[in-house]
């Protein structure tokens, strides 16, 4: 234990400070310029936990100076993960529990069609940031809170934007959804809403402008 204290813990603190220092500086510059914080949320439409994360964070962050950027993805998870099937199987039960805690009710009892969700992600990824958040929230509510389906036109799919989101997610550190990146630090977003909000406040973006 003494070796852990002398070597591992100090080196971890130094590493975290090297990552967080530039992030805090960038946040200070954004505040000085009158710009809001940026929270990037990587989500998948076939993932019920992504629905909970999006709707919960949208409500939590509305009271703060934050721009919530939604980034839909399809390719996610650890390649060849032997537990992937089990994770998907229990995702709905986990999401229902988390939704109740957030004051939401998931009414869907089965998983949506993956091909339709892929088309939806492709369509959403190509939208301007100013429109994408509202589109994603409406889609998630329809799929998971109302157990409905979306009829999509064949046009409007932007696979390049979708692949760009997936590459961006990997570079930022997350490997699965839902994940939020807040100025250099990332969280699994479905059960870390309070920590994400705290991070925003610690960076100086808490409260109304």
Keywords:
single chain; disordered N terminus; 4 strands; alpha+beta; Glutaredoxin; 209 residues
Summarize the structure.
The protein is of the alpha+beta class.
Please give a structural write-up:
With 209 residues, this protein is an alpha+beta fold. Helix 2 links the parallel strand 1 and strand 2 (66-72). 32% of the residues are buried. The chain has seven helices and four strands, in the order H-E-H-E-H-H-H-H-E-E-H. The protein is globular and about 45 Å long. The chain has a four-stranded mixed beta sheet. The protein has one domain (37-77, 88-202): Glutaredoxin.
In DSSP terms, counting alpha (H) and pi (I) runs of 4 or more, how many helices?
7
Strand pairing plus helix content: what structural class?
alpha+beta
Integer average pLDDT:
87
Order of helices and strands: HEHEHHHHEEH
CATH C-level class is Alpha Beta
Number of strands: 4
Unreliable sequence segments: 1-18
Strand content: 5-15%
What is the terminal-to-terminal distance? 46 Å
Indicate the CATH topology.
Glutaredoxin
Amount of helix: 55-70%
Strand order of the largest sheet: 2-1-3-4
How many structural domains can be distinguished in the coordinates? 1
């Amino acid at each position: 234990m003494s070796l852990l204290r002398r070597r591992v813990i100090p080196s971890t603190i130094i590493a975290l400070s090297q990552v967080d220092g530039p992030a805090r500086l960038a946040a200070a510059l954004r505040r000085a310029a009158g710009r809001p914080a940026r929270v990037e949320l990587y989500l998948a439409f076939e993932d019920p936990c992504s629905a909970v994360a999006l709707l919960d964070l949208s409500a939590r962050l509305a009271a703060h100076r934050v721009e919530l950027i939604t980034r839909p993805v399809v390719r996610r998870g650890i390649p060849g993960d032997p537990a992937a099937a089990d994770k998907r199987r229990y995702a709905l039960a986990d999401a229902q529990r988390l939704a109740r805690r957030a004051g939401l009710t998931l009414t869907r009892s089965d998983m949506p069609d993956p091909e339709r969700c892929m088309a939806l992600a492709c369509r959403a990824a190509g939208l301007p940031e100013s429109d994408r958040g509202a589109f994603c929230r409406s889609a998630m509510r329809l799929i998971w809170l109302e157990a409905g389906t979306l009829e999509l036109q064949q046009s409007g799919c932007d696979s390049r934007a979708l692949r760009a989101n997936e590459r961006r997610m990997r570079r930022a550190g997350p490997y699965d959804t839902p994940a939020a990146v807040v100025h250099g630090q990332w969280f699994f977003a479905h059960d870390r809403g309070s920590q994400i909000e705290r991070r925003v406040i610690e960076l100086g973006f808490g409260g109304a402008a």
